Amino acid sequence: PLSRPGHPGAGAEAQPARAGVDGTRGDNRIGGILRVKVFTLPWLADGTGFDDRAVASFMESHRVVDVAQHFFVHEKTPVLVLIVSYREGAESGRPSGELRRTAEDVGQGLEPEARRRFSALRAWRNQYARQSGKPPYVLFTNRQAAEMARLNPGSLAALSRIEGIGQARLDEFGEALLAVLRAVSEDPMDDAVLLPAPDSGPAGEAPEPSR
């Protein structure tokens, strides 16, 4: 019922522009071949949003590097296209089922203070997602949050070294992420860190489909 003429249903795999490229891009410590999967999500008939269960499930079981979104209207119906870049074979030797990891799993290997940064980053991401209308995973993934928490970058240049955090994200909320990290570092023993209020982001970034 979610299918539209000329567009695959929610979570269906379209033919990506690039099925895969040489895995030399990004952090060489991660390795693996960088591939692309495209999800096309129509607006639900009840006006509650896009059904993104399939893409959320996919992201739990793959090492996602980046998620780009493109919004358009087809026959008066809002459509969201998500282009997911992920690394195949990044954890060689492990069964694919073992790649399914929750946010708690991703943060398990972090030191206590880094885990607090990880939790704060995810809390801020949820705030920003609600305010901007974007899915949280479009902003940054749990793995990227864990890497930010581990490295604790103090500048935009350092933040840009994290795979998948490119110039567009730096421009949109890079300073806010640094503020979150500073807030945790300034009071590492306080479990109730007051997170910086998220900005609304650049005008026109988040789609606001009319119901």
Task: Characterize the structure shown.
It contains 7 helices and 3 strands, in the order βαββαααααα. With 211 residues, the protein is an alpha+beta fold. A 3-stranded antiparallel beta sheet has the order 1-3-2. A hairpin with a 2-residue loop joins β2 and β3. α3 crosses α7.
What would you say about this model in short?
With 211 residues, the protein is an alpha+beta fold. The protein contains 7 helices and 3 strands; from the N terminus they run βαββαααααα.
SSE layout and pairing:
Elements: E1 33-42, H1 53-60, E2 63-74, E3 77-88, H2 103-106, H3 112-132, H4 136-139, H5 142-151, H6 156-159, H7 167-186
Antiparallel strand pairs: 1-3, 2-3
Helix pairs in contact: 3-5, 3-7
How far is the N terminus from the C terminus? 18 Å
Describe the strand arrangement of the main beta sheet, using strand numbers: 1-3-2
The low-pLDDT segments are 1-30, 92-100, 200-211
* Share in helix: 25-40%
Rg, rounded, reads 18 Å
Main sheet record: 3 strands, antiparallel
Mean pLDDT: 74
Number of helices: 7
How much of the sequence is in beta strands? 15-25%
User: How does the overall form come out from the CA principal axes?
Assistant: globular
* Broad structural category: alpha+beta
